[in-house]
Amino acid sequence: MKAQSPKYFNSKVGIGIFFLPLAFVYWFISTMKKFFTKPYHSKAKVVCIGNITLGGVGKTPLVIKVIEELIKKNIRVGVLSRGYKGALSSKNPVLVNKKHTSFDIGDEVFMIFQKFNGKVPVCICTNRANGAKVLENMVDIIIMDDGLQNYTLAKDKAIIVFDGKQTIGNGFIFPAGPLRESLKNGMKKADAVVIMRKINQVFEKTIFKFKKPVFNAKTVAKDLEKFMGKSVIAFAGIGNPQKFYDTLKSEKIKIKRSFEFPDHYQYKDSDFENILKIANGIPILTTTKDYVKIPSKYQKKIISVEIDLNITNAKKFIDIILK
Fold this sequence. Notes:
Elements: H1 20-36, E1 45-50, H2 59-72, E2 77-81, E3 94-95, H3 102-105, H4 107-115, E4 122-124, H5 128-135, E5 141-145, E6 157-163, H6 183-189, E7 192-196, H7 201-208, E8 214-221, E9 231-236, H8 241-250, E10 254-260, H9 269-279, E11 284-287, H10 288-291, H11 296-299, E12 303-305, E13 307-311, H12 314-322
Parallel strand pairs: 1-5, 1-6, 2-4, 2-5, 6-7, 7-8, 9-10, 9-11, 11-12
Antiparallel strand pairs: 3-4, 8-13
């Protein structure tokens, strides 16, 4: 049940050197896509929350936080996503409704849609320009969830998210390292940077050289007081399950046993039967992203951990988005 993480994520130069020729091919194809793609300029303001590294860095909690802050300001906001792993994900835009499931539109999109009870328009489309055309007359701001390396849609603002523990690994482009594009090219696009989880002074010094606003953020679990000092079973199928476990541990919760699944994993009944058998009455905790994929017959036996996000100087961060 252990999720397999690419070995190069935490590597230094090491084996990554042998993949540099392939990394050059990856870079060349990405560059050609950018060069030959004419971006669509939406009527609505487009704010991209993306990353330049592979794997989970915590974009979704940040997307939710930004939406919440914009709603407080009475700004009409919508979400545009590719709907990764969703059966309906294609170049044809799909405006999400309450009939759609996580299987249809992808777990992260489904979680965002449910979080706001369907009151925030959400569209999935692999061609972001087509998706923006669906949303632009409905909202003032389109939050583009991921897509920093997608050039079909022009971005008015770009927020780059890093994980403070993973940082940028060996600094090489995939498959030699964990980068989708070079740090230099990525930072040229950035209007602001958010570093999740950990204040990494060495990494921050590198980021500060680009003279872009840098914010720190961390996730905080909600309503877990009753589990403090107690043992639980935890499972997660996210980009970096350890982040979830670290959040629980920060609340003084003892993880007796944990189960890790691949990111965007589609659970089977046998997975839950096995976890319930091993738990034997011990509380079972999982992420909201995982919970939305759990069949109803198991949901009452599993606890969804809601996460809030604290951003340093949040007002200034939102001001940058609105500027």
